[in-house]
Design brief:
Layout: H1 2-8, H2 11-17, E1 24-28, E2 39-46, E3 49-61, E4 65-72, E5 75-87, E6 90-101, H3 104-134, H4 138-142, H5 165-168
Helix pairs in contact: 1-3, 2-3
Protein name: Ligand-binding SRPBCC domain-containing protein
């Protein structure tokens, strides 16, 4: 569970998982692991335009939960909760995102498209966390800030693959 939690806080892992949007960390914590009270400024290409998004970690219970919230960016509101639990078959990770778009009725029309985009991003990120946690790949992301436990299995099914509108929607 600790390894999965720490991989989820890895800026470097996030950058690899978001390569298709050319996302970079341009401010705040730009590499290594982000922690309680810290912020990161992301810049990436989404829906054909460059978008900047600043997130701050405002909830922190190692190694079971953390929450990041948007402090500046495209959304009117964006909250992302990360939950971790030990299960018989490994570690269960569950993401909950609540967001709402700016720009009135036009933004609300785009929310369905944004929801699909976010689910795709989370699936890629969680697949990378799973792969890294279950192989020696985790060293690449966590080595510089200390070793994580050596025996961790991530459950085959992540909640991100079974999201419904009530979990993702704003």
């Amino acid at each position: 569970m600790e390894r999965c939690f720490r991989l989820a806080t890895s800026i470097d892992l996030h950058l690899v998982s978001a390569a298709q949007t050319r996302e970079t960390a341009i401010g705040g914590v730009t590499s290594g692991e982000i922690g309680e009270g810290q912020s990161v400024v992301w810049r990436g290409r989404h829906f054909g335009r460059w978008v900047t998004h600043t997130s701050k970690v405002d909830g922190w219970r190692p190694f079971s939960y953390f929450r990041d919230v948007m402090t500046e960016g495209w959304f009117a509101r964006f909250e992302h909760e990360h939950h971790f639990a030990v299960m018989d078959d490994g570690t269960r990770m569950r993401d909950e995102i609540r967001f709402s778009a700016r720009h009135g009725w036009m933004g609300r029309m785009l929310e369905k498209m944004v929801r699909r985009h976010l689910i795709g991003m989370l699936r890629r990120r969680n697949a990378l966390i799973k792969r890294a946690a279950e192989t020696e790949e985790w060293h690449k992301y966590l080595e510089r800030s200390g070793a994580a436990p050596s025996s961790v299995r991530v459950a085959k099914e992540s909640r991100a693959h079974r999201w419904d509108k009530s979990v993702v929607g704003g």
